[in-house]
Amino acid sequence: MLEKLNMDRALDKETYREKKGQLGEELAVLQRTCRELGIPVMIVFEGLGASGKGTQINELIGTLDPRGFQVYAINGESEEEQLRPFLWRFWTKIPARGRIAIFDRSWYRKVLIDRFDKVTSKEELGYAYDEINSFERQLTDDGMVVIKFYLYITKEEQKKRFQKLLDNRETAWRVSKGDLRRNEEYKRFVRMNEEMLERTDTDYAPWTVVEANDKRYAAVKIMGKAVEVLREAVERKKAEERQMDAGLAAGYVPSCLSNVDLSLSLDKEEYKEQLNSLQRELSMLHSELYRRRVPVILAFEGWDAAGKGGAIKRLTSCLDPRGYAVHPTASPNDIEKAHHYLWRFWRDVPKGGHIAIFDRTWYGRVMVERLEGFCTEQEWRRAYREINDMEANFVNYGAIVLKFWMQIDKDEQERRFWARMEDPAKQWKITEEDWRNREKWDQYVQAVDEMLLHTSTTYAPWIIVEANSKYYARIKVLRTVVDALKKRL
What we know:
Number of helices: 20
Strand content: 5-15%
Helix content: 40-55%
Distance between the termini: 17 Å
Structural class: alpha/beta
CATH superfamily of the largest domain: P-loop containing nucleotide triphosphate hydrolases
CATH topology of the largest domain: Rossmann fold
CATH class of the largest domain: Alpha Beta
CATH architecture of the largest domain: 3-Layer(aba) Sandwich
Number of domains: 2
Largest sheet: 5 strands, parallel
Order of helices and strands: HEHEHHEHHEHHHEHHEHEHHEHHEHHHEH
């Protein structure tokens, strides 16, 4: 993976100075804003020896207020630290709200240098990744912004930099025997680094890999990413505060669904033009999926009358019917009730090259079954992990997994219900149960919020579809599927 990076990326001095100046100014403003909003930040620098971590930390902090950050250089554990869980020394260094902690190497030493040097045993390695991911998840759940940079250089560049340091008596001490040994066994150590990146690249704390052969290019990429992430964190924090203020004023508990812009729409002419184009593209992609044996799983959930059927129909109308199956999910029958609740969905997993479309899904466990009392609280709470594990299995076997939540507001749902009641051709679509479910709207909002929070993962994310406009919703679904297939293919 790392050896396939384009290591020829470089910047000339003039471009570097211009971009660095612009990014530095914005970074300074963002630091002040994070302090005002109480946003804590942890920035992690990992990478190969001599890849320039110290240099890039100096570049990054050059425009920051030194009173607002602290840099930690992480080496081997002290005797005191060896007596405690390995994450203890990092828990004690997490920054207060509004401050920044920068780590020159970090908790990843456990699965990199210590692993290479056989300080970390195989047994410890087995659970170290889980502990690291849990650590970062706990921090980000509490509002911490975690930015992780991995600096990569080629074996030849690393050897050249080591030699330059060794040739100078004042810098020779910076190159250890371990550094030279890891350069000699470069490929083996890089494989360990690649495993680390794969196992700890999460939606809440993703890695940014930096091509660091050219120091100017690396500096600009790092500063640019830091600006991007902090800018997003500031906007998210401001939105949360606005939402909280609005919620308190209205006297209700805020919902993440309340931020969805349901005014988005398309007129009929735009809809037809985009529909034809996307369907033609999807048809061609379907053939290529079959040729390459890539399985696809599309899951649709949403409010009653939100337009799941209409979106599915626009998807399937351009597909070869031999290459897909639509699975409408109803209440489980007696045979299905006699099995684990996920059993019936496992049976419909598509083979390579085929598409499975689920009209309602395994998420019934944490919505209707939860609210109607068809399962215990322990069962539906456990289901979040079980569902995530199942979807991870799907992805690990090579499937593209996309999950759509079709969102409409309560007034739009009522309008569509009455439209169905008054249309003889559509009366079959509306039942007494649909009307009863409306009475539990607020309870469903809470259940959906928790579902989205617990089960939107990097490998199987939720896509919220603004569906008050059927035209807009259908196009968003089609475009999302087309983009995902193109990215894979």
